[in-house]
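Why do we care about 3D structure at all? Because function follows from shape, and shape follows, mostly, from sequence. That is the central idea of this module. The next example makes it concrete: a single protein chain, its amino acid sequence, and then its structure expressed as tokens.
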Amino acid sequence: MEIRPLDANEVGEALGLILDQPGLGRAELRAQVASLREYMKDQPLGQGALYGVSDAGRIVSAGFCLDSPGRAALLFVPSMALSPECSEVTVALLGRLVEAGHQRGMRLFQVLVPPDSPRDSALFEAAGFDRLAELIYLQRPTTLPLQGVSGQPDLTYEEYSRRSHGLFSRVIEQTYQDSLDCPKLTGVRPIEDIIAGHKATGEFDPSRWLVASVDGRPAGCILLARVKNRSALELVYMGVVPDARGRGIGKVMLHDAIQNALVQGLMYICLAVDADNVPALAVYRECGFSETMRRVAWVLSRYE
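And the structure:
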């Protein structure tokens, strides 16, 4: 078998292998391939980002690396539930994708797989990835009535700008201290990479990035972005600084975000949260969010 870069005329076949999942119908698979190909027109793959494994001229496995700002990349390979015989060569394929991505400047590599995928877990562990977290994806209609937040602190907000960039950097870093949301990432990435990655999520609008203060002191931040091609707002990141926790500040920020999304005529607000972040999950569920799906994130860091 040979691991090699793929030609443009092989992309469709490769994406079919990568996106196929147990129980996925052929029509749905074709629709997903078409959707991803359309997305890739606006997100061109870097040189060497798409590889295939060929055996006697036939592609038996494939993978690609989608580079993002902030030196982070998302990797895609076939589900081992459908092709367990390709696990050994797919480990080698992942290594090739990571090395090529590292040469392009990428430093954090991530894959997302459905829960209860033991063969995929074994694959990524063999390829040197660490299990980061099980992510729960939540969604809430903005029209769903909100319970009040009486007795909670009054917040004032400052929007993101060049002038406030340093403030946002400091507050975001402070919110990571003893965070329960993907704690294995704490201290791995420089703050400028983190901010660049957040800006690349959805449609960045500085007026939707806010630092919240109580009595003139920064207490937390909430970063929101419009979801492309959907009437939805994504909560990209929300955090509270350690000495302000336990006062309901996160709940107030969330309520304000939901109300603003409704005023803007958006239908939904959505987010992803670490399944082990029990306090945050309790707040989201209390505010009417419901689960839409789960994915397990595996990461490999190539920061020096």
